[in-house]
Design goal:
Elements (H helix, E strand, L loop, with lengths): L2 H13 L28 H14 L3 H10 L4 H23 L6 E9 L2 E9 L2 H4 L2 H20 L8 E5 L1 H5 L2 E3 L2 E4 H12 L4 E9 L4 E8 L2 E2 L6 E4 L1 E9 L6 H15 L23 E2 L2 E5 H5 L4 E10 L4 H6 L1
Antiparallel strand pairs: 1-2, 1-9, 2-6, 3-6, 4-5, 7-10, 8-9, 10-13, 11-12
Amino acid sequence: MSLLRSLRFYLFARTGSCQIGPPPLQSPQPWHTFHAGPWLSSSASSKELLMKLRRKTGYSFVNCKKALETCGGDLKQAEHWLHEQAQKEGWSKAAKLHGRKTKEGLIGLLQEENTTVLVEVNCETDFVSRNLKFQQLVQQVALGTMLHCQSLNDQLSTYSKGFLNSSELSDLPVGPEREGSLKDQLALAIGKLGENMILKRAAWVKVPAGFYVGSYVHGATHSPSLHNLVLGKYGALVVCETSECKANLEDLGRRLGQHVVGMAPLSVGSLDDEPGGEAETKMLSQPYLLDPSITLGQYVQPQGVSVVDFVRFECGEGEEAAEAE
């Protein structure tokens, strides 16, 4: 019998194993990446609570865990705590970023029944303007402006138009479902996205029967969560008076809005005004954008409507002039 076979026979007789050499290493036991607080046991319900808070708020796993530990596992209090911390961080970041140029952003157009609003929210880069969180901020601003307009008890015999500057817009309440003002939502967005942002301005128009508001947004995209909110870089509202309900009013209003965006008039003017050239600033005397062989007035007159007013927003408008000064 060879020496190796003899050795194996001897080992088997003594230990019940033929293994020669040191015993194999045991695989280490798995270890946890975090220490669970007293509220967070290994039960499925606790893990589900953590995931629910994360899905609902969008905050990180670590922050959600800390919130639940701080609030003893109370989901509602944890959510409030998270928003409170984010608010503080947002205001701090907003103060640091204040003064940085905000040439980019979005125009938001929202129509509900007889009220139409146009808002502008600015940021530093086009990249952030395409972020869903920024678009949600524009949506909140448009909804806040719409609620403000609807709260005005106007007895309309003719159309009414109003404007809100940055300060007035920032002080508007968010709405019945959320606490705070629009400037609080602005701070939250700054904290999350890390850019300076401004609630620039808003305009609104309310019309009674016999009037129609045409609208157009250039480069339009629809909000993912609010179907009647349209986002883009340019926006226009055109107020028309009509004696009868016409089937093509929506298409006509869109064409008039396109003209306002493209030709940038400064006033409506009159059908009696002489036709002007490309430098003309009176809307009805300008060459019609879609057919320059006629004026806009000549296009509108056979349609049976009268153009009485308009609003035009261009994203970042005025920033270049302010920088030049």
